[in-house]
């Protein structure tokens, strides 16, 4: 819609989702200067020079969606072993294949996922995996924003532990702030049940030294919680508190099985929880206590988890699941209203990832936003666009996507990645894994 | 793809979902003669004459989806009052507006829904509402297949009851078998809590007289079950058994709150249950005991319910919800595997609606089928197309739709309905309801 060299441009006739306390929608104008939104309002802003203007008629503009937990490269294992018991799925399907992943596999698997995410309106994602340089390359090329972290499993010799920790530190140092500031980094011991306490604390120390946040899997299944109690005499939240993790800004993934006391601790330390409803349901992990977490003041965001346990990267689906399942479980149809689900998928996500200028449409925020075409049967009548976005929309309704002020998806097509090649290379990578 | 006058035509290079016990996918050819599928197989069928052939490369063919419970015209109230307590939603939002619905409103509301359903791959739907002649007109014009029934609320004088019953009988008589056989009819007292027993039994008698099946809402909420026990000393299933409903072929909608004994009775009489997961979650009605129903041998199908409580008519979403939530609730990741969810959305739906020749791709079945384009990021790698259809697809992945051998959607556009006009008229109808 605009030339990539344009510094200042405007949308007219748009419907903008601002979701502040007083007002959820503004119809009118949005002004973008370089990578920032500088104005949203009903009145046309007064500008001296001629600037490009695009017509936002019949488009609903939303903040770009923020996916706070995943393993992008696992798209190569999408549909490879579904509907199996968890241990069979992991031990016979996922782990033997993941062991064979090369840098190249991670590059194409991550490309496939970033392509799907951008086209589906996700403008920021957190990724925890191995061969992270390749994921960072994909982020750089694609124009997406990302929080990247080398997830380390510590069930190995001390020497290998040291190597992996150093690799995680090097990656976090090298890439923090890269790609025009679109990449930030974290330290991620994979989980309390895969990292012995003394190894876990080395990540806490590294996060302090580098002054970056921490991420880990926590309390995803009943059995891992029971194991934690058996091994350390503590449930996972108390265990991580004891290891000092929460002295750093932190976000934990899943948090399905939590006691009241654990919820209080998470609230006290401002620990964010990445709720992964699709993955938690599909793997039969259970249903997280999201309404209780929100009531306690915990910042709850949404993640798809890896595409092998979801099996897509549709954040509209995660927002809808969050809005639906907690009503059904609680018996309260007012639980997690549409606007709250949208906040979980946008501003709460940005807050959880410690990105202050992302996640809402407002002057001073990064120009990360998406447009969906509301002139479609499932958005008629035009009653409540927030409801429509949560209860009716899907990722394929996304027409245009901008990140950092640059358009990356136009009329449903990705401008920055070679879709046909990525599909081909990802398919080949999967076949290669099968055959070696 | 083919001229509508063609009697015999073929698809080559297709991937066909046959879902029988031995095999789920066939790659090869499908032959269609008039309204029937006459061949599916790997080998090219030997045909003497020249017939039109379409290339099914990169297309996954599935049986058309079967939506077994809904109120299409309620699309006019989509997004009009979400996230409210049930009684406020009904008494302050739905009922005052529905009271104002005219025939014209029902026509445009139903047109909007049928448009959305066809484009999303639904080829058969059950509709229970008022002004049913209008719904039948839409079915006739659009080319969709439907089971139509005038839903009658009996909380009125005996005279009005008589009028409504007669209207339901007349509609069922007049339209059964119409629209080249695409329309069948049922008798539908709205629910045990809205139809006094002696009125309910008159519907049973009429269904016997007309030799057609019955449909009703049953056990959707805890409070209606409690009310049934208080009023009649019986839970709803025993109550309906006593009223003789199950002497007719029957399908009940919802069935959320059921005891073991009630499940046994449903199984004994072969009563189908239309599971409406999206609506049950959104209205916080609860989560139906679907794995127990299936274990007991009950035919469980899927319905969207009305678009005001969903808020879309995406049967892919209902299949995915069915596959996901019962895993999450039971803690068993093998509960309702992808293939079973697909059967619930297709063949079990057809069986529930007593349509013997609909719901699967096989010789002798009606040519009701859909094609989704698998050459997309979220369907790569090509591991398991059934998994992809359930866990990754959405209604907007549907490219082509055929009903009764005729193409009704081509490249995502509906060939039989005027989409732009329907959107406009539906929006006007909603505004008219607001203003009068």
Automatic annotation (TrEMBL), chains A, B:
Cofactor: binding comment: Binds 1 zinc ion per subunit.
Sequence positions that bind substrate: 98, 150, 162, 190, 220, 305
Entry keyword DNA-binding: no
Cofactor(s) it depends on: Zn(2+)
Residues of the Amidohydrolase-related domain: 62-408
InterPro entries reported in the protein's UniProt record: Amidohydro-rel, Deaminase_MtaD/DadD, Metal-dep_hydrolase_composite, Metal_Hydrolase, MTA/SAH_deaminase
Family: Belongs to the metallo-dependent hydrolases superfamily. MTA/SAH deaminase family.
The protein, known as: 5-methylthioadenosine/S-adenosylhomocysteine deaminase
């Amino acid at each position: 819609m605009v030339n990539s060299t344009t510094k200042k441009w405007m949308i007219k006739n748009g419907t903008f989702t601002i979701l502040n306390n007083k007002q959820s929608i503004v119809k009118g104008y949005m002004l973008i200067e370089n990578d920032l939104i500088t104005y949203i309002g009903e009145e046309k802003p007064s500008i001296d020079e001629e600037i490009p203007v695009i017509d936002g008629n019949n488009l609903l503009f939303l903040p770009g969606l923020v996916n706070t937990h995943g393993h992008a490269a696992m798209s190569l294992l999408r549909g490879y072993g579904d509907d199996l018991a968890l241990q069979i799925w992991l031990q016979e399907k996922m782990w033997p294949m993941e062991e064979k992943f090369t840098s190249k596999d991670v590059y194409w698997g991550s490309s496939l996922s970033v392509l799907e995410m951008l086209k589906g309106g996700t403008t920021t994602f957190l990724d925890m995996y191995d061969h992270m340089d390749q994921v960072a390359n994909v982020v750089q090329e694609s124009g997406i924003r990302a929080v990247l972290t080398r997830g380390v499993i510590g069930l190995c010799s001390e020497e290998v532990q040291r190597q992996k920790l150093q690799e995680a530190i090097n990656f976090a140092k090298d890439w923090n702030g890269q790609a025009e500031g679109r990449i930030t980094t974290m330290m991620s011991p994979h989980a309390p049940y895969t990292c012995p306490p003394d190894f876990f604390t080395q990540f806490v120390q590294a996060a302090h030294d580098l002054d970056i946040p921490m991420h880990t899997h926590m309390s995803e299944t009943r059995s891992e919680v029971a194991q934690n109690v058996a091994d350390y005499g503590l449930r996972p939240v108390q265990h991580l508190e004891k290891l000092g993790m929460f002295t750093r800004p932190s976000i934990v993934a899943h948090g399905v099985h939590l006691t009241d006391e654990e919820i209080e601790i998470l609230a006290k330390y401002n620990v964010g929880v990445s709720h992964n409803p699709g993955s938690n349901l599909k793997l039969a992990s259970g249903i997280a206590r999201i309404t209780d977490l929100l009531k306690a003041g915990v910042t709850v965001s949404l993640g798809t988890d890896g595409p092998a346990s979801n099996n897509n990267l549709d954040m509209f689906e995660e927002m809808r699941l969050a809005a639906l399942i907690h009503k059904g479980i609680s018996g309260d149809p007012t639980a997690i209203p549409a606007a709250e689900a949208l906040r979980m998928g946008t501003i709460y996500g940005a807050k959880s990832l410690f990105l202050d200028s992302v996640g809402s449409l407002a002057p001073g925020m990064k120009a990360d936003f998406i447009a969906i075409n509301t002139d479609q049967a499932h958005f008629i009548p035009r009653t409540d666009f927030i409801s429509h976005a949560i209860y009716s929309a899907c990722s394929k309704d996304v027409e245009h996507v901008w990140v950092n002020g640059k358009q990356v998806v136009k009329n449903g097509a990705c401008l920055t990645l070679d879709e046909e090649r990525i599909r081909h290379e990802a398919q080949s990578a999967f076949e290669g894994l099968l055959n070696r």
